[in-house]
Amino acid sequence: MLEHITDDIYRLVVRFKGAMGEMNSYLIKGDNGYTVIDTGIHAPETKALWERVLSNYKIEKLVLTHTHEDHIGLARWFQEIYEIPVYVSRRGYEQMSKGKDAKARKNRLKSLIKKHGAPPIPLKIRDESHIYKFEPDGFFDDNDEIKLGNRLYQTIWTPGHAPDHYCFYQPETEIMIIGDHVLNHLSPVIGLWMGEEHNPLEDYLKALDLLKDYRVRMALPGHGDMIENLDERITDISHRHEKRLEQILELMKEEEMTAFKLTTKAYGPMKSMAFASQFMATLTRLIYLEEHSKINVQTKKGKNYYGLPAKDLYAIRS
């Protein structure tokens, strides 16, 4: 079940139906048992896998990189059934509080997608509020030190994919547990999954640059393969975002559009489960461009329309 990564770190690939289909959990060996990083979603198949693990390995505590459903899903179950202490960031606790009210979250998302031109409701939102309804046993903050196994790791706040996302860095071994901040073969989705409008892409790009200050021999992501050259992967992801931003500006030469229409122009008609992520990625890029004064936004009949500034349109038409 466990894949040996380093002298004290093991990987457990937690597989489940839907979403990304799997998640990497890490078990870090210590004198008092293993520290678990993230759990996978709350589902019968994930519980069955963890029951096998928990019957064979002593777990000291559970620590969460962030509070998305596929990472925090079994935290309450760990705590209530197996009495395993759960540690989360204080920022994560704030997100948990929002996640407890499923109706309010759904209403915010409905309002958000309606404002940005999407039909009701392309996002199928399951009620996962029960996974947030527990009290963590401990908290960590930005730039703290947290003991994972026998070693101290630095907590690095890396918002963007989630407002409460943290990476954990061990300076002696140069290992970074990187969660969903950087993935090896995919760009993490930058979305507004709580339905609150802000500029997460700005946060994400700044947090990407922040990691270049760390000497990393190996990065352990929440999904997919390990990353041996983190700086190179960060550069690749940054370039990908630049190209997508350029694509949006190019599409806007035609006309003003809502985020939904721009998504269909960039990715094709709404026809797959991936469309929700594509819509969110487009929307957060539009928010980023508007805050950087690259585009304008106008509200017409309750919907936001994005377009190029008049001077840019004049230059194109000239």
From TrEMBL:
Pfam families: Lactamase_B. Residues 22-223 form the Metallo-beta-lactamase domain. CDD domains: TTHA1429-like_MBL-fold (cd07725). It comes from the Bacteria. This is MBL fold metallo-hydrolase. It comes from Oceanobacillus jeddahense. The lineage of its organism: Bacteria, Bacillati, Bacillota, Bacilli, Bacillales.
